[in-house]
């Protein structure tokens, strides 16, 4: 049946056009019920005998409305929910409202075990309906769902065995209309409660039940229209909220203020006004009298939560104190959140606060409890659960549903439990989920695009078409030990004219990964391989990454080669690019290659080539340094793992050898050469990588800290910064220069992928490498950016190659760069979290004392870097709080021992000083200290399982009474011993006084 709808449309030029839309209605759309004899199914989806429950003893299929998917998506994903009919009306509406939820629905539809069937009711003659006059789109869609439910009920009423359909909606009005039509309609709560399963009951969104609605705590958010008009007029400013990693009550946005880029601080619970880390928010500037010079710089931990009024009062007092301290300098803009433009809520991993569970063990009654996310930037979340006691000590996943003005905390619901806290596999899953790392197994559909020969695939004669044969060259690879995804190799040949032919050969991944297929889409989504301490999350199936694309020795492999002619000064005479076939002669580790260079007795062709490459690499590096390339540093460590358990048994700093630099120089040269070539071919859509110059503000504290050593840092260009770092040497402290380079690294901006058509050419520059253009070409096994660059390079050198708009569409390339930047950032953070996890495992049940350096000063603490382990920890500048003290007692509040001096950016003792006098005790940047390292298990989980387990650092030297602890290394320190002895003598007296005070209180 063909329906036509005509209407008139006026174009921008003023012409009036008649538009005719055709709509085909069909009779042959399947119901997809397994036992239906009317529909001619090829592969029915809905089971012959669907599930039953206490509410419906008759087997039935579920037809949910749109809001069930939008508000209860976690419930719908539960294994107990099967045999669901997803109407086209509902699916299209979900897509319009939320693309992430739409994708989750599509994933459920693709999962054959779930038995979710999409019924095209909008194209079926028996279920399509016209919109009535004065009927809203929402009412029309609700009616369409009821009509489709009725059609299904009539269509399957005579099946044997008997089955029925149930419409699921939380709209009471819609349920009443359905019941009046003789349909079965229920709410999700009624249906789920009838399943009698505690886990799925907890997964229901129950925001209304958790909102006490008694007292307004926060200001109301402005409407979208009000916010939009305010941003256009300049009254409000827009930005992405970033919460401080040390203070959950402090955030900031980076935006334009009066036409210039700048940061707006947002401090305090009321000013944050229910915004969560990552939200896109609208901010109104506070009066200048409430601005401050810097972030508060205060470490705040939510371990001890006081009453609401006390906490808010403390915030106000802290803000007032900070304002007085900051009055010395130019204040920084501060603001308050007036509206949420886009929420960034996601699923959060964490644990239940033991102190919030007040029901007796074994109780299955639903109770309200507080959930702590592992990410300390996220506020506590209030959830309702029937499993409170069984979930204690476990890592669980929770989602936020809402955050009303009357609730101190956001309201959410339980999704699932991951496992016991402290278990290595559980904690690894947590860090992958927290950093949005896709780690599911590759689907059968993805694997179907692998070569059918599998591991038996070999280079065939037809593969040589369009390729050069480099199998006779002395190609070798140099990689870290244990590397299996070898994506680069090198060769060198002395030429008759005294120059050298040097080749970088990169695995030809694009031969196997074709544009647009499912494997390519999966790789684009994953973006990068993620390297954890004990495992690797691959971007591509392992058959490709560790076998067919890996340039292993003594096997023929397909490659994409960059071939230079270099003179003896390592200057490029010419360069060309070609597809090739290679056969590597050796797969070496950095150490093996270094041993070949150093062992004069080794004179084989491969070793001689490595020596030439090393000579040329040194010249390339020196030229880069002369141009201003930076040599920075980071405290990287390597764990030695026990073979069976994979537990850490030793840790050491990564040692870099000459051969590390050898490989790096030629990879950099290849990336730069390829960048120039693809930009020449694709000036508007080349995938490039830039590194912006850091703003001056990033260096202010560092400059102030090194000034006391007579050192000046000039960061006006990368060359002046490089020279400054080279000259910053303290003969009495050999580690100082490396420490300065580590801290300089933290002043840098993030390097980013970008589309060449989205930026002006002056912004292409890579500040750290001191080059005007750069890209990533050399690691296509582990980076999708390199896959795209390979495709663009192939198109640039082969004029006969046809390609789609994926290489030329600027918008698509921009979107891809955005995803790759996100995945790259998350992969780096996941890798750091993995190191942190294994550091905790290494230090479990042990205490170490090591030398460290102060690398950051906060207002109530300082951060220490321990070079031996590459770890950082916070040392608080306040006296320890007695765990037995009452929270309302003054003794329970941290007593400051050192106070922050904003003029010198240091912590110092509290005595009154005469002009020019130096404080007796002070802690400042670069100061060498001795610390005691252990794992603090006595945290929010009630001391069981280390629920937010973290590294504990305590000061040993210098001895600061009230802060330092008495350890092995300072047991013979006279000052420390005297103080400790005095405390021991006073302890019995203090205990007696406390006991008497306790008796008086009881009386």
From TrEMBL:
Question: Does this UniProt record's set of keywords contain rRNA processing?
Answer: yes
Q: Which Gene3D superfamilies match?
A: 2.40.50.690, 2.40.50.700, 5'-nuclease, Nucleic acid-binding proteins
For this chain's UniProt record, which GO biological process terms are given? exonucleolytic trimming to generate mature 3'-end of 5.8S rRNA from tricistronic rRNA transcript (SSU-rRNA, 5.8S rRNA, LSU-rRNA); mRNA processing; nonfunctional rRNA decay; nuclear mRNA surveillance of meiosis-specific transcripts; nuclear mRNA surveillance of mRNA 3'-end processing; nuclear polyadenylation-dependent CUT catabolic process; nuclear polyadenylation-dependent rRNA catabolic process; regulatory ncRNA 3'-end processing
- Entries under CDD domains matching the protein: PIN_Rrp44-like (cd09862)
Concerning its family, UniProt says:
Belongs to the RNR ribonuclease family.
What PANTHER family would the database entry show? EXOSOME COMPLEX EXONUCLEASE RRP44 (PTHR23355:SF35), RIBONUCLEASE (PTHR23355)
- Protein name as it appears in the record: Ribosomal RNA-processing protein 44
